[in-house]
Amino acid sequence: MIILFIPIFFDALIVSIIGILVVFSILALLAIILGLFPRLIYSRAKIVGERPKPTTREKIEIKIKEGGLKPDEIALITTAVTAFLEYKTNTFMKNPLLKQLPILAKLFPLAGVVFKAKLKLSLGGSEREVEVREESPGTYIVKIGAKTYAATIKPPEEKIEIDLAKQ
Amino acid sequence: MDGAELVQMLSNNIGILNITLGNIVMICVGLLLVYLAVKKNYEPLILLPIGATAILVNLPLQTLTEPPHGLLYLVKTYLIDTEVVPLLIFLGLGAMTDFGPMIANPKSLLLGAAAQIGVFIALITAITLGFNLKEAASIGIIGGADGPTTIYLTVKLAPHLLAANAVAAYSYMALVPLIQPPVIKALTSREERRIRMKQLRPVSKTEKVIFPLVTMVVAGFLVPSAIPLIGMIMIGNLFRESGVVERLSKAASEELMNIVTIFLGLGIGSTMRAELFLRPATLMIIGLGALAFASATAVGVLFAKIMNLFVKEKVNPMIGAAGVSAVPMSARVVQKLASEEDPGNYLLMHAMGPNVAGVIGTAIVAGVFLSLLG
Question: Do B191 and B318 form a contact (C-beta atoms < 8 A)?
């Protein structure tokens, strides 16, 4: 009786193997095409210059050195630092001298001038007030409510490393 | 006419005198389907007409299913057997489906593919129970959790199993909230069920318009026998996403869908006559249907767990269970389980990706079966 089953069982096995291969191949091919969609569709807009230049916010890559932070904390810290940098750059650019010679800005910390800002950030629908202070070039202290965090930016990769979970 | 002839004539024309035990059983089955639809709200749009029609066709001496002019005979012969209704349902389904979550997360297509393995597990099990290959394929496709595809394939490969397969497919689709959670919980840890996923990127109209055209062409080039199903769902979807034929989109997703659903219910219900339905094979199909659903769910979850070994951004393995294409029930089941573990975890849209991918996957599997066995 079992022997009678064998040829049909093998037919079923072959049909199954072909079926699984075909369904995975086609859906994987579609997945690849869908993965390429954003590049294929939006590259033209980039070429003709319809899309604005990437801002600091887009260029900075986040790297978390120590765990323990919640995703919303990481998002808030990263947003705070990038917003602080944009704010600082915009402020400097208003000064004609610094606009001509931006390298002069690097002398401020040596002269004991600390750049700090209070920012209001809207994240996920709720508005939060954060305080960012430039401790030394590339190192930022971020105060969110009662908690304080330290974030560093390492040039030239432009990566933010949140290296203290909480202070 | 003497007295004996009169009694004979009366007995030939009074229904209750001609009822069989099979008729009574099937009337009870019909009542059960009506109860599930009305009281439990299980797939009422399809189970209610099927159940009511099952009661109707088991009333003795009825002529609705009699050729050449019985209404239900005409519906079944010209709308179900010709596959007009399942294909038009796919058109409406396309007009109702948002493929956005799948386009935003293309990996979900692989989860949709993985869940189809359940179809093949059921197929091989059906073979070992003594069904032939065509019958086993039409039973296995129940695991795809797609009613119209099951009907489409069964009509082509094993029309004598139409009633049992269709009832099993729609009943189990209704029972997804009962079948899937134990399987998902058995295969995932609490920590895995609590995994949060990154918000999906927005999908532009351009992408949504190009997608159905690309899918039609890709599927058409590789599995031509899947073109009727894939083609109809994609045309319906193009109506929806193009934004320029709102009337057609609305007609396909509402008026046409409602009309063909009525015909589908009448057509399938008309096949539930005792002499066609009450067979040992039906019981086996009901059992195999449960196996197909459970195994498709299990394989989807396991595949998502395997995927997590290779991807940077972890996926919640529960969304693999939504690869069975019971849209949107299985995605809702995933969301419900996610909320139970972590009320702030929103997985519905993530689960919709594999869910709609499962529809395409099941149609492709049906196409493969038709190519190899049809």
Answer: no
Phi, then psi, of B117 in degrees rounded to 5: -60, -30
Give the three-class secondary structure for B310.
coil
User: Domain spans of chain A?
Assistant: 1-51, 56-162
Q: The complex's ipTM?
A: 0.90
Neighboring chain B residues of A5 at a CB cutoff of 8 Å: 127-128
- Beta strand residue intervals within chain B, DSSP E: none
pLDDT tens digits, B41-62: 888 999 999 999 999 999 998 8
Place of tokens 């059983």: B25
Instruction: Answer for the pair B90, B232: CB distance below 8 angstroms, yes or no.
Output: yes
For residue A38 the two structure tokens come to 């954003």
Angle, in degrees to the nearest 10, between helices B348-373 and B108-115: 50
Contact B124 A5 (CB under 8 A): no
Helix (H) or strand (E) holding B223: none
Residue with tokens 């291969």: A21
The stretches of B243-347 forming alpha helices (DSSP H) are 246-250, 257-270, 274-277, 280-308, 329-341
Q: Which of B206, B211, B361 is closest, CB to CB, to A23?
A: B361
List A144's β-bridge partners, or say none. A130, A147
Torsion angle of the four alpha carbons B205, B206, B207, B211, in this order, in degrees rounded to the nearest 10 = 100
Full-model pTM: 0.73
How far does Cα A94 stand from its chain's mean position? 28
Cα–Cα nearest to B214, from B198, B230, B195: B230
Between CA B295 and CA B306 the distance in angstroms is: 16
With contacts defined as CB-CB under 8 Å, which chain A residues touch B306?
none
Joined together, the tokens standing for residue B229 give 């199903």
Q: From first to last of its 374 residues, what are the pLDDT tens digits of chain B? A: 678 888 888 777 888 888 999 999 999 999 999 999 999 888 899 999 999 999 999 999 889 999 999 999 999 999 999 999 999 999 999 999 999 999 999 999 999 999 999 999 999 999 999 999 999 999 999 998 889 999 999 999 999 999 899 989 988 888 898 999 999 999 999 999 999 998 888 888 999 999 999 999 999 999 999 999 999 999 999 999 999 999 999 999 999 999 999 999 999 999 999 988 999 999 999 999 999 999 999 999 999 999 999 988 899 999 999 998 888 889 999 999 999 999 889 999 999 999 999 999 999 999 999 999 98
The answer to whether the beta carbons of residues B278 and B164 sit under 8 Å apart is no
First to last CA, chain A: 74
pLDDT at residue A50 above 60?
Answer: no
Say yes or no for a CB contact (<8 Å) between A30 and B103. Answer: no
Contact B330, B350 (CB under 8 A): no
Beta bridge partners of A24: none
Hey, are the CB atoms on B123 and A12 less than 8 Å from each other? yes
Label residue B69 exposed, middle or buried (CB < 10 Å: 0-12, 13-18, 19+): exposed
